Structure formats: structure tokens, C-alpha cells
Amino acid sequence: MKATPINSLSKLCIHTITHKPWSLREVADNFARVGVSGVTVWRDDLAGTNPVEAGKLLRSRGLEIVSYCRGGFFPAKDASDRKSAIYDNERTIDEAAALGAPLVVLVCGAVPGQSLAQSRRQIVDGINAVLPRAKEKGVKLAIEPLHPMYADDRSAVNDLKTANDLCEEINSDYVGVAVDVYHLWWDPRLEVEIRRCGRMKKIFAFHICDWKTPTEHLLLDRGLMGEGCIPIREIRSWVEESGFHGYNEVEIFSEKHWAGDQRDFLDQIVHAYREHS
Amino acid sequence: MKATPINSLSKLCIHTITHKPWSLREVADNFARVGVSGVTVWRDDLAGTNPVEAGKLLRSRGLEIVSYCRGGFFPAKDASDRKSAIYDNERTIDEAAALGAPLVVLVCGAVPGQSLAQSRRQIVDGINAVLPRAKEKGVKLAIEPLHPMYADDRSAVNDLKTANDLCEEINSDYVGVAVDVYHLWWDPRLEVEIRRCGRMKKIFAFHICDWKTPTEHLLLDRGLMGEGCIPIREIRSWVEESGFHGYNEVEIFSEKHWAGDQRDFLDQIVHAYREHS
């Protein structure tokens, strides 16, 4: 089965960071105007706003709050720093609950010079430490495997197999995976591991964007769907065949797109979503 | 077993591109002056020089020619372009033989928008097509798995498992692998696949440098050993335990280091080689 083209916006979710120049109110008004259905809220974009009020604002425009980005960054060389990370993740879970987001996405963390295996141990410990709060608040956690180019200081979880293995080890209904095509598209085992993730009922989120050639910045040069080489529709077909029927979340960090008119960019996203996702 | 610190320069090889500002004669004179033992010659650095003469020059300074970089780039959408790549690789093998290099390193290639699986098929076809020339000239070929951030247009071989699988499929004494810490350090299966590569007698080369935090350019911001987070000595221990006793090849593309005084940089390399490799 090939995924069919997308004919409605009922599963289109956009991350607030994709329109970084906009305030939360501009996000709410413009997403509603063009028919976007869901929104994932970045913690930075909430700064200074009461999350309860932010949730009300977004829902008042008919938007579903899909997830809250992001928690994580559990590893640290110093035990007091790991404790501080746990405190911060509990606060993030509280904010997600106040906002009305059912999911927190985890960028798990890594420490330059500490072995990745050691960082993964600390990630498991950190997730286990915050699990009681997640259950109490009814907020799930998604481990997001990050591209290997972020293995130095952002995440020691760099492919889907590793994320699946960690889910298996933690073994909680509250912990699953965020599958992001940008991070995972290159992996020869991607289809196999997506199907495994689906069998485990661990696909909690699906993120899309594109990989440009050339990519001029490791972090801030992601492409709009269709601008790059990722077989997004094929990967979506694997995810859907594996039982995931949630949102397709557009998450684009791009200084180029941020520098342009955001209403034009939103129109481009909606077009690209139908044509290239 | 942990790899022991390095106490001599008898296995130190440096790639000519590491000192891009230098002519081949400056490379030869300066490497000899500080006691470097081997050199890997980049094709660009040979431009305009007769490879037989270049080989004589380098050997006259006591340098062993370790390999010739680089062949590859086999995949292409158009059949005539793939044929052209085969012709070019045969010429590269001829040049390596004329130079006196026993090995050509392959950056295998990829085509944005073509599936990586399809590119890997074309890579196998390309290597098989040039194998007769490699045998005729007595020049071996090393598949170099490249970091996943180069999967768009540089290589569809992005981890050691994939390179090992391709070697197994091609099944020729003339085809093995170049293990480069920069491309592979993040992989949770690296130790297992290095040992497998060793059992197959396929470790043909070992390249070192470091991964800096932050890395500011996808291609031209590699670090000197010790400037980053790669566990170089640990990876070297796995390679040596797997039966590899060839050169440790320093391959650093860095606009920052190229902008500095090259004699100072060479001194830093020799120091970092003893301290951090």
C-alpha cells in the first residue's frame, strides 16, 4: 500500500516554532483562518503566558493542541544537574497539563565527552523519575530520536531502533516515540523499526519537513516539504500502515523561512502539505 | 583491552587535504621534517602533476603512500552518467597505481530524490564494473560509509553495517571498508560492526579527526583530535583488536585550520596524535 495524497487539512498540525516570528495570538488567528486543525506548542513560545490561558486561546479558534515541545535533556555529568533536569521536566509536564496538551516531546539530551551509552542510562533514569508526574497529570511522553548529527550535545538516541529499545525497557503506556522524517529518513532499517514501533503501539507523534541540498546550517536550515529529498509520503505510508492515525505535524526550523512573510509561508505550507506529504 | 597511548609516529599518516594550502612539495618536505610516516593523496592535490612523479617525490622523503582519495559517486539517474562515473573511477584506479597507492577510497555517492536503496544497487553495480581494472592494477577499493548527514548527495552508505553488507555481497578480496571515526562514532552498533568487519578481513583503512561542539559547517568544520567528543582511542582499540595494524590517517577538512599557519597546525596534529588518538 502506498499512502494516498492528502485531501483535507483535518490532520494538519503545525508547530508554533515553524512560525517563530508570530505571537501565540497570531498563530491562533492565522492557523484558524486557513483551516489548520492542530497545533504543537513550543515552550519558548509560551514564555510569559499562563498556559491555561494559552490553551483557552488556541481552543477558542478551533485548534486541537497536539503536543508540547519540549522536555528532556536528562544527562549531565553532575548529579545535581540531573536532579535539576528532573525538576524541570516535572514543570514541563505540569505546563502541558495546564495547556491541555496530552503529550510532551522529549529531546533526550547528551553530554559532549560522556559516552552515549552512559547518557542513555541517564535518559532512562530521568524518564523513570518523571513518570509518576506524567501519570498523575495524564500527560504522555514521546522519545524523539534525533539525527546522528545531534549526538554530541542534543540526544544520545539517534535512530528509531534505539528509541524502540528504550520504550521496551521502560515499558510504560505513558512512554512512546515521536517519529520525525528529518531525523530518520536516511536509516536503512527505518521501515522495519516503524513497523516494530507500531506493533508496540508506541508511535505517539509524526513530524514532517524536508532535507535540503545543500543544507547550510546543522539546526536552522530545514526545508518545507517538497524542497528536499525525503520520501515523506512513503514514510507516512509506513506510519499509517503501522496503525498511527494522528496528526502530521509540520516542524520547520529555518532562518530563511522565518525571514519571509509568515502569511505567505503558511500558504506555502498548506500547499506543500497537500502536494508533497 | 584498551588501546594504549601512541608513542611513535610510525603509523601516523596525514591526508594531503588536511593541509590544503600546501603544495605537494610542501607536504612532502614538512611531513618528512616532523617524522610523519605515511601520506594519503587527494586527487585534487595532484591536479596538473604526473602521478608517477608525485609518487617519486613523496617516497624520496621517506613517506609511504597509504591511499588515494577518492573514487566513487557511482549513482546517477541517467545511465550515461553512470557509465561516465565508471570511466572516471577506472582513471582514478590508474592514477593510484601510477602514484604507487595500494588503495582507492570510495565516497560512494547518492542522488537527491532517488531512493537510497536504488543508489546502493547502483553502487554495487559500479564497483563490480571497475573491479577488473582494480585487479589488473593491484589497487584495492575501500567503501567509506559516510555520516547520515551526507545521505542526500554524497553517499547512500551511512553506517558500517551497510558497508559490511555490501562487502559481503560483492565478495572480492579487492573490496573492503574505510572506517572513519567522524562518520561512525555515534552508532550504537559500531563496536559490533567493527568486529564483524575485522573477522571478514575488510578493515582497509582507519581515519581519525574529531567532532566539535558546535559544528558550524556540515563539511568544513572538522576538529583536530581532542577538540571534540569522539572516543577516538576506544574506537582505535576496537579496530586494532579486530586485526587492523595499518596507519591512523588524520583527515581534517577545516576552514579554520586551513586559515592558520600550516607548520603550526602540523605541530598541533603531531601533539594531538600522541595525546588524543
Describe what this molecule looks like in 3D.
2 copies of one chain form a homodimer. The first copy, chain A, has about 280 residues and is α/β, with parallel strands linked by helices. The first copy, chain A, has one domain: TIM Barrel, CATH 3.20.20. Chain A is about 45% helix and about 15% strand. Chain A contains 10 helices and 8 strands. The first copy, chain A, has an 8-stranded parallel barrel with strand order 1-2-3-4-5-6-7-8, surrounded by 7 helices. In chain A, helix 8 links the parallel strand 7 and strand 8. The first copy, chain A, is globular, with a radius of gyration of 18 Å. Chain A starts with 11 loop residues before the first strand and ends with a helix. At the A-B interface, loops of A face loops of B.
How large is the radius of gyration of chain A? Answer: 18 Å
Quaternary organization: homodimer
Sheet of most strands of chain A: 8 strands, parallel, barrel
The count of domains of chain A is 1
> What's the total count of β strands of chain A?
8
CATH architectural grouping of chain A:
Alpha-Beta Barrel
Name given to the CATH homologous superfamily of chain A: Divalent-metal-dependent TIM barrel enzymes
